[in-house]
Amino acid sequence: MSCSVVCLSGPDGSQMRAVAASVTVTLGYSLVDEAIIMRAAADAGVDPQVVADVEKRRSFIDRVLGALTMSGDATAVVFTGGGGGYLPPEEHVSDELRNLIRMAIEETADRGNVVIVAHAASHALAGRADVLRVLVTASPETRCARIAAEQGLSEKDAARAIAAADANRADYLRRFFGEKSELPTQYDIVVNTDRLSIGPAAAVVAAAAAQPATATV
Length: 217
Fold this sequence. Notes:
Elements: E1 5-9, H1 16-27, E2 30-33, H2 34-43, H3 48-52, H4 54-71, H5 74-78, H6 95-111, E3 114-117, H7 121-124, E4 131-137, H8 140-151, H9 155-177, E5 189-192, H10 198-210
Helix pairs in contact: 1-10, 2-6, 4-6, 8-9
């Protein structure tokens, strides 16, 4: 059985979203971006009661996934988070919303045939045999240059933006998964886009996903 779920994680400037979009098309899977879940939750006025109530949560997730399926444009979904990170600044994101995102990731994975672009989906789904966990990365210099070009920032401002996004990412992993640091061994494959362009990087991920899945020991 090949992996029916592919989780892509990566820091800002790694081109992880573009790689995810290409993987989605290659595999013919659906794509879910946690920014979509977050915005839908805000639009729906989601509160902690939805997180706690299983039926309400499922209804909410069904509506979100249904909207994505009807849009028919996976590449549009993956880029809706804008030029920066997946989530707004840390002080604007409640623990309830983060819990909702985590639960949505888990229930989305249960549906199968999906590419999940999320802050820490690989950690939320660790140990599942049907999941391929991918880290897309690049050197700080490459990431800084990309962010500066994409957002029209100076090199200094781009470096500050990357530092802030990396700090938020590390805080998320620490608070929700108890990870003191992010390690390559927390993923099945690591793709470096310093040298691999989007197409070849996506091909590596798609090929790995097509291999028979094995249980984690």
